[in-house]
Amino acid sequence: MFDETRGVRKKIAVIGAGISGLSAAYYLSEDHDITVFEAEPRLGGHARTVMAGRKGDQPVDTGFIVFNYVTYPYLTRLFDELNVPVTKSEMSFGATIDNGRIEYGLNNLRTLTAQKRNLARPAYYKMIADILRFGKEAPEAAQDDDTTIGELVDQLRLGHWFRHNYLMPMCGAIWSTPVEFVDQFPARSLVHFFRNHALLASGRANQHQWYTVKGGSIEYVRRIEAALRARGSDIRLGSPVQRIERHDLGVTVHAGGEAKLFDEIILATHSDQSLAILGEAATGAEKAALGAIRYQPNKAILHCDPGQMPRRRACWSSWTYRSQNGNVGVTYWMNRLQNIPDSDPLFVTLNAASDIPADKIYDEVEFAHPIFDKAALRAQGQIREMQGQNRTWFAGAYNRHGFHEDGIASAMHLVERITSAPQIIGADNGISEKEPAVPTSAQFRGDIGVVDAVRPRRTFSLACFWCV
């Protein structure tokens, strides 16, 4: 079919229904015939909400949790279009190291000094000074694409405590990556990300206000699903793709014992999964680029065990790095992140540093997160060059920094090229050109009440960030 105002209506297969696949399908479905193939029995990918708590009535996110209106321009635009209800989230970072030998929080002066022993440790004062100096000097120093963050720390002569008790734990928590891999992160990319997300401490109130979806991320997933079905899109759950064939007539997708022909295909799965789907039909360039990105498995446990938090209650933070007996993990305090009453304690721990009693566990799931070393960054450029070749497109958060906004950003690039309609926001460097006012989607609706639609306030914190 040809619409003079919109062009040729294509049949497009979207494989994978995480944020990348769902947003690509949503923005293409108005003008094209979309079929979504999802191997799992549900939509959403890392947008995963579980009902938990003492009465089983608390919606808790175990993957994607928070966002802001400064560095998530695509996601917040989508939420505004879908009227997704959101609420403010409280963000803070803390650490409990070596079985509680060192504990601190970076939310305010009280949490900084919660462990009184730190006040007598010169190394602790130097760590705080190094955090501030890193924020000031790192952007100018990180100009070489080949320099790793470990090399940059050495170059700036930042101390042992800064490296091992702050930077490595923080980066490991942000990217859900073992600390031994953090040293190999490309410095320029990491510092650029820190700057854009207001994570470079400068000793002043410069942090973004964070938000979470009211009722859990499932709320936005349901709205996308409803929009797709209303537009006649075909959604196939529990339908893993066995293989695809690319030829002159299009792309044939084999799934569920059926073969279906499409004009274009969008692989919105992890890069290694996309390579497996391509199989022997993958080109040399596809094998090299998609195969260069490594993944780290992370086990997430939703539970009510406060034993995963710091010994000192004053150090409890929205997300806490914990090392114990050589094991490291990160715990997210869901009561603070998603405004759950403290009377119903809920936590999500990635790679628990100690055992969690079985009777305190509500849910377990394993995620895979990309490791952003220099090989991965080179692969990103190679994948950009491959886009659209052989009627094949690659979407996924692995194309940028690995977060929810990066997943939808990768989809919007494909949507723009497929539709020839402008989609890219600003310089598309992970941050809006200017800080926007909170749009309609940031207002509470119905029986929730209304939040003032004002510019997001900034809250003091040396560091406060989390998202998956």
Question: What's a quick, concise take on this entry?
Answer:
The protein has 468 residues and is an alpha+beta fold. The chain has helices at residues 19-28, 73-82, 109-112, 122-141, 149-155, 160-175, 179-182, 187-196, 218-230, 271-278, 284-290, 334-337, 374-386, 404-419, and strands at residues 2-3, 7-8, 11-15, 33-37, 49-52, 58-61, 66-68, 86-89, 93-97, 102-105, 210-213, 234-236, 241-247, 250-255, 258-262, 264-267, 295-303, 319-324, 327-333, 347-350, 361-370, 392-394.
Q: State the secondary-structure class.
A: alpha+beta
Q: How many domain modules? A: 2
Please give the share of residues in helix: 25-40%
Main CATH class of the largest domain: Alpha Beta
Average predicted confidence as pLDDT: 87
Number of strands: 22
CATH topology of the largest domain: FAD/NAD(P)-binding domain
Beta-strand portion reads: 15-25%
Instruction: Pick out the low-confidence regions.
Output: 429-468
Cα shape: globular
Q: Could you give the order of strands across the largest sheet?
A: 10-9-18-19-20-17-21
CATH homology superfamily name of the largest domain: FAD/NAD(P)-binding domain
- Mind telling me which CATH architecture of the largest domain this is? 3-Layer(bba) Sandwich
Work out the helix count.
Answer: 14
Separation, N- and C-terminal Cα atoms: 40 Å
Rg (C-alpha, Å): 22 Å
Largest sheet: 7 strands, mixed
